[in-house]
Design brief:
Radius of gyration: 24 Å
Strand content: 25-35%
Distance between the termini: 38 Å
Number of strands: 26
Shape: globular
Strand order of the largest sheet: 4-5-8-9-10-11-12-13
Length: 525
């Protein structure tokens, strides 16, 4: 930096110290964020704040369902978990898997619980008691006001199994499977709208793994049969999950879209990240992969739909995503009731903002996203027989969910950059923004992924006079590795406050602390 630049940086630091708080650690050159409420990307669909439950470890049994527990209701659902789910802002819930779906026979999970068979689960090496099945799942969603999303067995299952499942859930006439539903206590149809055409069938780890062509042929016929049972359903194709060396994830999606472009409404993407190298800034550089995968698949969708006037829109369902790298167990098929119980720390909470920022920046094409999973298994809620605690990742998820139905904005960001690896440089500030036109409020979501630098930032608004009063939601902690546990889940909690800024025309200065996630609510007069 030259002498003039150093003087400018020092002056900005003095200004933001007055309007915010003393700077922590080093300071970087000033960044700039430009807001224009006319630059709309698309609606932030409520289903971006979805979740996922699978028959795996203690997610269902001991998490969602714990029969005979004093903490459960008459149906066996944990009441404390349900309350935590309500506060989390979940909108749509995916079930029964995951890998479990590819070996699951849905007919094992209906009828009187005491008559249901116990089966080996060859996805996760456990025994499945089938005490939580279709009607329990749909009742759970109904109680919580969630949209249900059922994933069919496209691995070992059949097309007829899938068609009959839709009939059982949605048929109103006097058919065989509608009678079975009524016999099981549900007279009116459940009306399940969202159906997944299998899970991760591109992965060699999957029961019934298929080539792209074989999967696409199966899924095409399943889609046609399922729509015969209910033409109103919306279908999600099994897209990329295998990004390993040698895997042609782009070719998989291209083939699936070519076959299914007239039948599906979504194609799925799955991504998990981890900080195996214990390098904070490299860990949060994962947004490059997330953005790239979304943009590549968007291009494939556009190519597949070209030349088809009036073709149905196809969107992306990012229906499995999270931080997951510690709780991987031993053998892939190791039996155990405590599988995948990842304990999250502060830096994992920041990664929630990174994922959600990417989804919001692509709100025109990403219309569904499902965090994996809800309870105990790589989850924001963690239970034992006596209670629960909220993991660090819970709080950003709950706060971002308040932005559903807002308009995503294309903001201009100028920020100091870094080069975490051999890839392209990356901005330290990872930003998304949404606009609520009713309240004329801009939500500015800013992740500072610099481990050591506070970043003074000039925030400029193009249209509409800014209010000098900001509402601030900030997630910050000095220890990147701090975690929660039972009785101590207040270590990483967001701070909220109102800040009066010194307006300079239609702009103001704000400093984003090192390794922090901040949401500024800015009202336009």
């Amino acid at each position: 930096m030259n002498e003039a630049g150093m003087l400018k940086s020092a002056f900005l630091c003095l200004v933001v110290a007055v309007v915010h708080r003393p700077l922590i650690g080093q300071t970087a050159p000033a960044a700039r964020i430009k807001i224009d409420t006319e630059r709309v990307i698309g609606e932030v669909h409520p289903h971006l704040f979805g979740n996922f439950i699978e028959h795996l470890g203690r997610c269902i049994y001991g998490g969602v369902l714990e029969e005979a527990s004093p903490l459960s209701d008459s149906d066996g659902f944990r009441k404390d978990v349900m309350e935590a789910v309500r506060r989390l802002g979940v909108t749509i819930l995916r079930w029964p898997g995951g890998n479990f779906a590819s070996g699951y026979n849905w007919k094992d999970g209906i009828g009187p619980r005491e008559l249901r068979p116990v089966r080996p689960d060859h996805a996760w090496g456990d025994l499945e008691p089938n005490r939580f099945g279709t009607d329990e799942f749909l009742l759970y969603c109904e109680r919580l006001g969630l949209e249900p999303y059922i994933c069919i067995n496209a691995g070992l299952g059949t097309i007829e199994d899938a068609r009959q499942w839709v009939e059982y859930c949605n048929e109103s006439r006097d058919t065989y499977w509608a009678r079975q539903r009524r016999k099981n206590g549900r007279h009116k149809p459940w009306g399940v709208k969202y159906w997944g055409l299998g899970n991760e069938i591109d992965g060699p780890w999957q029961l019934g793994h298929k080539s792209a062509e074989d999967y696409s042929k199966f899924a095409l016929e399943a889609a046609k049969a399922m729509r015969r049972a209910d033409p109103s359903i919306r279908l999600i194709a099994s897209g990329s999950s295998n990004f390993g060396r040698g895997a042609d994830w782009i070719g998989w999606n291209r083939t699936v879209l070519q076959y299914l472009r007239t039948e599906i409404d979504y194609i799925s993407l799955h991504t998990y990240i981890g900080n195996r190298d214990n390098n904070f800034e490299r860990f949060l550089a994962a947004s490059r992969d997330i953005d790239e995968r979304i943009e590549v698949v968007e291009g494939l969708i556009r190519a597949a739909r070209s030349g088809l006037p009036g073709a149905r829109p196809i969107y992306i369902a990012f229906d499995e995503w999270n931080v997951w790298y510690r709780a991987v167990g031993g053998s892939e098929y190791e039996t155990g009731r405590t599988r995948l119980e990842e304990i999250y720390n502060f830096e994992d909470a920041l990664a929630m903002g990174m994922f959600l920022n990417s989804f919001i920046r692509h709100a025109h094409i990403v219309k569904m996203a499902n965090l994996a999973q809800l309870v105990n298994v790589i989850a924001p809620i963690f239970t034992n027989p006596k209670g629960l605690f909220l993991q660090t990742i819970y709080f950003p998820l709950a706060e971002y969910a308040k932005q559903r139905n807002n308009l995503a904005l294309d903001v201009l960001v100028s920020s100091p950059e870094y080069k975490p690896d051999a890839g392209r440089p990356l901005k330290y500030l990872d930003v998304s923004a949404t606009y609520n036109s009713g309240s004329r409020t801009v939500y500015l979501n800013v992740l500072n992924r610099s481990e050591k630098m506070d970043i003074p930032t000039r925030i400029v608004n193009v249209e509409g006079q800014l209010s000098a009063s900001l509402e601030v939601w900030e997630l910050y902690h000095t220890d990147l590795k701090v975690t929660h546990t039972f009785g101590a889940d207040d270590r990483v909690r967001p701070a909220t406050r109102t800040v009066n800024v010194a307006l300079q025309g239609n702009a103001f200065d704000y400093t984003f602390p090192k390794h922090s996630l901040t949401i500024l609510k800015v009202t336009l007069k």
